[in-house]
Amino acid sequence: MSIQTSLATGDPVAAVAAPEIPAVASRGYWGSVLRRLVRDPVAMAAACVILAIVLAAIFAPLIAPMDPFKGSMVRRLRHVGDATYWLGSDELGRDMLTRLLYAGRLSLFMGVLPVVIAFFVGSGLGILAGYAGGWVNTLIMRVVDVFFAFPSVLLAIALSGALGAGILNSIVSLTVVFVPQITRVAESVTVQIRNRDYVEAARVSGANPFTVVRVQVLGNVLGPVFVYATSLISVSMILASGLSFLGLGVKPPEPEWGLMLNTLRTAIYVNPVVAALPGVMIFITSISFNLLSDGLRSAMEVRQ
Amino acid sequence: MTDLDPRDRGGPAQPLLTVDGLVKHFPGKGGFLGKGPAVRAVDGVDFSVMKGETLGVVGESGCGKSTTARLLMQIARQDRGDIVFDGELLGSRALDLKAYRRQVQMVFQDSYASLNPRLTVEESVAFGPKAHGLSAAAALSRAHDLLRRVGLEPRRFGGRYPHEVSGGQRQRVNIARALALEPRLLILDEAVSALDKSVEAQVLNLLTDLKQEFGLTYIFISHDLNVVRFMSDRVMVMYLGRIAEIGPADAILGAPRHPYTAALLASQPSTDPEARLEEAPLTGDPPNPINPPPGCRFHTRCRFAAEVCRTREPGLDPVAAAHFAACHMASPGSGHPDAPPVPMAA
Amino acid sequence: MNAPLRNPEAAADDALIEVRGLTVDFLGGRKAVRAVGGVDLSIRAGEALALLGESGSGKSVTLRALMRLLPESRTRIAGHLRVDGHDVLALKRKALSAYRGGTVAMIFQDPGLALDPVYRIGDQIAEAVMRHEGVSRAAGRARALELFERVHIPSPARRLDAYPHELSGGMRQRAMIALALACRPKVLLADEPTTALDATVQIQILLLLRELQRDLGLAVIFVTHDVGVAVQVADRVAVMYGGHLVEVGASGDVIGAPAHPYTQGLLASRITPDSPKGVRLPTIPGSPPDLADPPPGCPFEPRCAFAVPACREGLPASLAAGPSHAARCIRLGVPAA
C-alpha cells in the first residue's frame, strides 16, 4: 500500500499543471496564445480527452465500480459488454474498467513527472550553455552528446536495470533520458534568442547577465521548450509502460497500463479485445498529448 | 550649443570619441577543419567624433559600417585598436565597460527585432534604468517621461506589445529605450532605413529635436546619402573595412575626392525623368571582404585605376580643410598619372 | 460619374493588362481586411508602370492578384482581370500554370523566393523551359545560357553550374530575372526587386530591367516605395494609398506637379540634396488608415490638410489633372475623359 500513499502526495493534477508556470510571466502574450488554442478544435478535443482521463484517474475510488485488487478465479477473462464487468475482466478475474481507471494514476504520473523534472533541469542547463557559450557550452553539450549516442529506449532500460525495478527508479531513469533532449532544444533556442537585437540592446544597457536572462531570454526560451516537453509526455508514458511491461517499473498487483498489457498478453488468443484495452488507453492518452502539443505549437507561432 | 554636461571632462575641443587602429576579423568558415580565410570586416579604421556633432557613415554591404557600430557598442570585441571616450581609454581604470555603456547607446535598424515580443513597450524602456538600480516605480515613471518625449502618449502606448504598434512607433520606442540611460553618444545604425518615407521624416525631425534637447552626439549610419547629408556635420565613407574618405558633409557629398564616393552619389536614382541614368557608374558587386584586393581596395571597380593602385595601398591623406581621402589621385607624388603635382619644396 | 482611373491615351482595346474594379479582401481575422479597394488600371504592351506606395498601401497585393499568388482560402478577389486575353480569375489549374511564367512572370525582393537553393541555377532555368515549351534538355540548357548572356552575367557558362548561394546579391538578382524570362513572358511583374541591394548594384539592375523591357517589348509593373526608382524604370507612375489608386500619370507629371494631396505630402517629406539643413522636414500628420475599418470616403481624408465634409461622402471620382494625368481628389473638379 506504499504506492497508494505516494500517489496521494504526488498528485498527478499538480504535476500536469506545473509546466504552465511560465504562463504567468507575460499575460498579454500567453493570453493571446490561449485564445488561439481555444479556437483550435483538434487541440481542444485532445485537451478534453486528457482532462477526462486525468479526472477519471483522480476520482477512480469514487467512480470505479469494484475493488481493483479483488479477483475471482471463476470470473476470469470475461468479454467486453459483460453485465457485471462492462469492460470484461482480466486473467485474475479483476474488473478491467476499475483497473484501467486506477492504472491511469500511475501511468499519468510516470508519464508526466519525469518530463516536468527534466523540463526544469534541461531548461536550466540549456539556457546556461546557450547564453554562456564558450567552454561552458562545450562541456554541457558534449556530455549531452554522449547521452544521445544511446537510443532512448535502450538508455531507459539500461538505467532501470542498473538501478533496479521500482517506480522511483523508473522515474529517475526516464528523467535522465529526457534531460539531454530538453537541454539540446533549450540550448539551440537560447543561442538564437541571444543574438536577437533586443538581447544585445539589453546587454549593452549594462544589466548583469542574470537580469538579462531573467527578463529578456527566459520567457522567449521556455515557450518553445515547453511545447517540446509536452510532446515528450507521450514518449514518457510509452517508455514507462514499456519498463513496467519488462518488469522494471511498477510491480504487480499495482494497476498500470504497461504492466496490465504485460500480464494480459497470455490471454491474447482467448480474449484479444480485453488484452488490448490497456494499449488502447496508452494510445489515446499519448496521441492526445501529442495533438495538444501540436496545437500549442501553432498557437504560439503566430504573431499578429 | 547646450549646457555643459557635468560628465564632460576635456571641454568642447576634446573629441567625444576617438577610434584608433580598429581591426576586427571574423574567423572564416569552411575549408579544412572548418577554418577558412578570415572575413576582414574592419581592417584598420581611425576617426574621431567631436562633441555635439553628427558623424554620418555611409558605405555598401560588407564595408564594415555595422561591424564598426557593434565594436563601438562592444557587442563584439575588436582584435586590435583603442576606443577613447572623452579622453579616457576604454578598459582603463578611469573608464570601465559599464561606465562606458551608460554613455554610449545604440538604435538598431530592425525595430521589431530590437524589442522583446514578450515585454510591453514601457517594460522595455524601463529595463535599462531598472538594471542600473532605479526602483521599479522610478524606472517606470522615467519610461513614461521618455515615451511622452518621443511622441507616444504613455497611457495609450505604454501597455502595448511591440506587434501592437506601427513600425515608426516601434522605432520611437527604441529611441526612448536608448535614451533611458542618458547617453552622450547615440549610434543610429540604419535606424530610419526600414521606415516609410513619410514616417522617416517624422523620426528624423524627432532625432534633430532630441539632439538639441539632450546635447547628444550622433553617429548616423545609413545607406541613403540624402538622409546622411541632411543629418550630418561630417561624413565618413567606408569601403571594404577601410575609410575611403572623411570630411565635412557638404564637401564629401558635394565635391567628393574619392572615385568611390563619386560613384555612390551618381548611383542615386534621380526623381527627374529627364535626368535618368543611361549607364551604371560602377559595374559588378562590392568584392568580398574575405579577400580584399591588394593595393587600393577599390581598384577592381575604379575606372581611373592605374598601375600604382594595384600595388600600393593609398594612405588617408588631407585633400582640403578637414577633408581626407584615400586615393592616389588626391595624393601629390603618388605615381598616379592624374595625381596633383608635388608642391615645390620651400 | 465615377469614371475609371486610367491613362486617357490607352484605349481599352489595345491594353495588354486590363484591371477593372479589383478588390482583394483578406479573410480569417475577426473582420475581413480590404487590402485593395477597387483598382482600375490598363497597361499596353511594352509599357512600364511603377506602382508607388508605402507599406500597407496595397501595391504588392495588387501585383500578386495579377499572378493569382494570394492564398485562395484566405483571400477573396473580385473584379475584372484580363491579361493578354486571359480572364485571370477564371483560369483553371493547368491554364493557370501555363499563364504563370508563359504570359506573366514575377521577380521578388528576395531571390530566395524564386530560386531553389538545392538546384544549380542553369538546371532550374532549363527545367522551366522544358516544362513550358516541351523541348529537350540540351535546348533548355542552350536557352539558359542565352538568357544568362541577356542579363549580362559575366562568364555565363560557368555561372550556370552555380548554386544560388554561390552568387553575389546582384548576380542572384540577375539570375532570377533570367529565370523569369525563361518562358518568354509578355508581362514582367517586379515586387521591389532592388530594395535590398546596394545603391551601386541597384542602379545596374534598374538599367537592366529597362533595357530588357525595351528590347523584348515587355509590359512591366514595378512595385516600389522609392520615388527615384519609380522614375528610373517607368514612364508612367501610379500612386497607391490605403488600397486605392489615388493618382496616375506620366512620371514627369506626377512627380513634377502632383495633383493628389497624398502625393504632394509624400514628395514634400522626401529628403533631396537641396533640403536645407537644420530646418524641420515637412511631414504628413497621422498614420495610414486601418484597412479593417477604412474611412468612409477618401482614404486620405483623415490626414488631409484640404479635407472638407464632401470628402467623407464617398470615394472621390478620378478626375483629370492634365492630358495624361488623373487623380482621385474632389479639388480637381473636371471628370477625367
From TrEMBL, chain A:
PROSITE patterns: ABC_TM1. Residues 104-293 form the ABC transmembrane type-1 domain. It is found in: Cell membrane. One of its GO terms (cellular component) is plasma membrane. InterPro entries: BP-dependent_transpt_permease (IPR050366), MetI-like (IPR000515), MetI-like_sf (IPR035906), OppC_N (IPR025966). Keywords: Cell membrane, Membrane, Transmembrane, Transmembrane helix, Transport. GO terms for biological process: transmembrane transport. Its main location: membrane. Belongs to the binding-protein-dependent transport system permease family. This is ABC transporter permease. It comes from Methylobacterium platani.
UniProtKB/TrEMBL annotation, chain B:
One of its GO terms (biological process) is transmembrane transport. Belongs to the ABC transporter superfamily. Glutathione importer (TC 3.A.1.5.11) family. Gene3D superfamilies: P-loop containing nucleotide triphosphate hydrolases. Its EC number is 7.4.2.10. This is Glutathione import ATP-binding protein GsiA. It is a peripheral membrane protein. The complex is composed of two ATP-binding proteins (GsiA), two transmembrane proteins (GsiC and GsiD) and a solute-binding protein (GsiB). GO terms for cellular component: plasma membrane. It is found in: Cell inner membrane. Keywords: ATP-binding, Cell inner membrane, Cell membrane, Hydrolase, Membrane, Nucleotide-binding, Repeat, Translocase, Transport. SMART domains: AAA. It holds the Pfam family oligo_HPY. NCBIfam families: oligo_HPY.
From TrEMBL, chain C:
One of its GO terms (cellular component) is plasma membrane. The keyword Nucleotide-binding applies. Gene3D superfamilies: P-loop containing nucleotide triphosphate hydrolases. Residues 19-267 form the ABC transporter domain. Pfam families: ABC_tran, oligo_HPY. Keywords: ATP-binding, Cell membrane, Membrane, Nucleotide-binding, Transport. GO terms for biological process: peptide transport; transmembrane transport. GO terms for molecular function: ATP binding; ATP hydrolysis activity. It is found in: Cell inner membrane. It is a peripheral membrane protein. InterPro entries: AAA+_ATPase (IPR003593), ABC_Ni/Peptide_Import (IPR050388), ABC_transporter-like_ATP-bd (IPR003439), ABC_transporter-like_CS (IPR017871), Oligopep_ABC_C (IPR013563), P-loop_NTPase (IPR027417). PROSITE patterns: ABC_TRANSPORTER_1, ABC_TRANSPORTER_2. Belongs to the ABC transporter superfamily. This is Peptide ABC transporter ATP-binding protein. It comes from Methylobacterium platani.
